[in-house]
Amino acid sequence: MKQQSNIHQIQSISKLLRILGLPAPLHPLVALVDYNKVSIDSFPRGQKVSLDFYKISFKTSFKGQIKYGQGYYDFEEGGLAFLKPKQIVHPPEDIESYEGIALYFHPDFIRNHPLGKKINQYGFFSYDVSEALFLSAKEKKIIANLFATIAHELDNNIDQFSQHVLVSQIELLLNYSNRFYNRQFITRKAINHDIVTSLDNLLNKYFEEDKSLQIGLPSVKYISRELKLSPRYLSDMLSSLTGLNTQQYIQNAIIEKAKEKLSTTNLSVSQIAYELGFEHSQSFSKLFKTKTNISPSEFRHSFN
């Protein structure tokens, strides 16, 4: 275990299991950890940890919190949380708060399989822990069965088919997670619509306070930070509600603000582009025409 800038980087699954006081994994690139079997004294509490491999946590209940960045995620309801390699987490001080199972697998384990090429398409690996997947009772049963199937395969003797079978099972788990996240976006529409309202207010305030003159066009990173959401989660949530990702949503807001200025002021196209945060008026005109099929000047003339 390597320590850099107070961050403990764990490079291999074998090292992680040694730290947890567990036997070496049957396969060095994939393992399941039952936290009910982890020694309380073995885990480095209160230290930032970075793993060089993927982690999927499945908890039917969780009495405690994990700190992620500046926020906390309360697993009281149970569910699934996902970490990709190099993400930094703050384990809880009280290891007794852990319940459930964690699946760990190294990028090399899936590298030569189709999953290795498309795993970045599973956006939830880029979500914050606070944006975890909450599972219904029926969904928990499905996920529990998948974890049990993976556990059974890991307990078998390794043969020439083991890796292919395990990768297929992991991919099935990820596909179910995709489906359940889509359900979560739908069932939490009221909450998500509140987020969209906050986003609209944030964009309006951005232009009213002339932040575009100070820091340029509103960025996905800025918007996500202000809403306290990960960029990927915000984009996926918006797509489920509006059909637009965050960048497209921001661009539409910019165009609406541009239309307002073009129809109610005598500012030149270049001045409007500057006030909206564009460095070059040509970039503004190109975006406007892409979104509306007419140029800013043509739009203005339609009001005369």
Under CATH, the topology of the largest domain can be stated as Jelly Rolls
Silhouette: elongated
**H and E order:** EEHEEEEEEEEHHEHHHHHHHHHH
- Report the structural category: alpha+beta
Distance between the termini: 70 Å
Instruction: Kindly report the oligomeric state of this protein.
Output: single chain
Mean pLDDT: 84
Low-confidence stretches: 66-75
The tally of strands reads 11
The radius of gyration over CA amounts to: 24 Å
Kindly summarize this structure in a few lines.
With 304 residues, this protein is an alpha+beta fold. The chain has 13 helices and eleven strands.
Describe this structure in words.
- The longest helix has 26 residues, at 162-187.
- The model is unreliable at 66-75 (pLDDT under 50).
- Helix 10 (246-264) packs across helix 11 and helix 11 crosses helix 12 (281-292).
- Strands 3-10-5-8-11 form a five-stranded antiparallel β-sheet. Strands 1-2-4-9 form a four-stranded mixed β-sheet. Strands 6-7 form a two-stranded antiparallel sheet.
- The protein has 13 helices and eleven strands.
- Helices cover 50% and strands 14% of the residues.
- With 304 residues, it is an alpha+beta fold.
- Strand 6 (65-68) and strand 7 form a beta hairpin.
- It folds into two domains: 2-187, Sandwich (Jelly Rolls), CATH 2.60.120; 190-301, Arc Repressor Mutant, subunit A.
